[in-house]
Amino acid sequence: MIKRLSQCIREYKKDAILSPVYVLVESLLDVAIPFVMADLIDKGIDAGNMGMILRYGAILVGFALVALLFGALAGRSCARATAGFARNLRHDMFHHLQVYSFSNIDKFSAPGLVTRLTTDVNNVQNAFMMIIRTLIRCPAMLIFAMVMSFRINKDIAAIFLAVIPVLGIGLYLIIRRVHPVFTRVFKTYDALNGVVQENLSGIRVVKNFVREEHEIEKFDGISGKIYKDFSLAERIMSLNNPLMQSCIYACMILVSWLGAKQIVIGTMSTGNLMSFFTYIMQILSSLMMLSMVFVMITMSRTSAERIVEVLEEQSDITNGPDPVYEVKNGSIVFRDVSFSYAKRPDKEVLYNIDLEIASGQTIGIIGGTGSSKSSLVQLIPRLYDVTAGSVLVGGVDVRDYDLNTLRQNVAMVLQKNTLFSGTIKENLRWGNPDASDEELVRVCRLAQADEFIRSFPDGYDTYIEQGGTNVSGGQKQRLCIARALLRRPKILILDDSTSAVDTKTDALIGKAFREEIPDTTKIIIAQRISSVKDADQIIVMDNGSIHGRGTHEELLESNEIYREVYYSQQKGGLEG
User: Fold this and answer.
1) Do 232 and 140 form a contact (C-beta atoms < 8 A)?
2) What distances in angstroms separate CA 142 from CA 136, 222, 459, 479, 515, one per listed residue?
3) Could you read off the pLDDT of 11-34 as tens digits, one per residue?
4) First to last CA, the chain
């Protein structure tokens, strides 16, 4: 885990090394100051020697200024190293997420990944800061101060050796109890983020059904669980402070008692006793800070484990050893295909699919909710891999293609249309970053989007809010279709992507497809028979298998499901 995280330091390695070096110099000077102070008292003040007072006073000022300089340098280097480390960590995680398959994302969940990219990274960044600064400073101060204490008086300094094991055992017991609590807390954070994300994305539904109180109650339940766990963790960690204070005061009392006796008998000077008190505070303060560092590391350990889990997760969809970089045509063949999301044969959602689609054909797919229509088409661009059998595009198994090449040639408009914040032009150019304005207009005319775009005051420069909230559902669908067409794909998949447009616009889109992109294989998943009745072949899906196939007329005669859907829509006034 540490090795994997350390790879994210990269160009900030110099600052990460310099910061501890600066801290060591600063610590050495801080420890030297009480020693000089003892000579100032014994040889200057007690002896009434003004020359020695000025001499040692100047040395103290010099030490303080140099310590201040190195402290500032340590702070600057530490800030650059930790901020850079966090930036690289977020970059590596986000970059790694881009190669995840859908099943990888399903494993972690979107809210969980957001928590790991934000809260967990912040925790690890804080721990890294404490490691390269505080974790170096505390042992250094502890060792230097102990050495100086033993140099002054070995008998009194031995007190510290009795205190350290007590603190060590207490700290170990605290950390052992706290770590499982933080592990539980961060998992709850994932759930909290999920509730917030779900609520905000569905706020219109929440308000429409007047479910604000229900959502508040759900949020408060999870938030209360986090409060309960954090309260428990804080109660456990709060034991650290009284333990430290007890040790500090016990040491001060013992040093005062033993030091006073040695001053009386003349084996110890007043200056040495005062410097000893300073070393007591330095030693025990270092131990206290060290305990806080370990508590912070305990908190961040869970975050670090969650981050490394994301970084080491390997996509289950990758290029083969010798990938194919050319898709010859848009023909599609399903050979005895079965598929399950859980990779378990007993939970298959597609069964023994055999299907051949010639390049340039228009294929319609209909079926009830849960008939696995979307699951079927998602196997074509390898959003998921088959559990059994094979899918061929252009005569080549999709698993043998370079992923980018395959997906560049298979444009898919999903059920949930997504637009990103930016202008309409910027959203369209997701399909082709180098597309000219004329090309944008052409595909928008094909998708029946040009007319409504020109009705906006800013036309194609109209700004789209995040998620496309300032355009209607039908407008969003047509923009997404235009974006897909801009790819000039060999295969175009519309997954129920015209459900929000009227039948006239739907028919115009279908006509434009037939006339303008005849060589592109078009797969149209729809609920309306009118959307697919002119297709070269219509597939009827039922419970994960093909229930029927043929033209509109053939299915009306031979397929009960198709006939039932057709007449119910005719009766409902949805047809023609």
Assistant:
1) no
2) 10, 43, 69, 66, 81
3) 999 999 999 899 888 888 888 887
4) 63
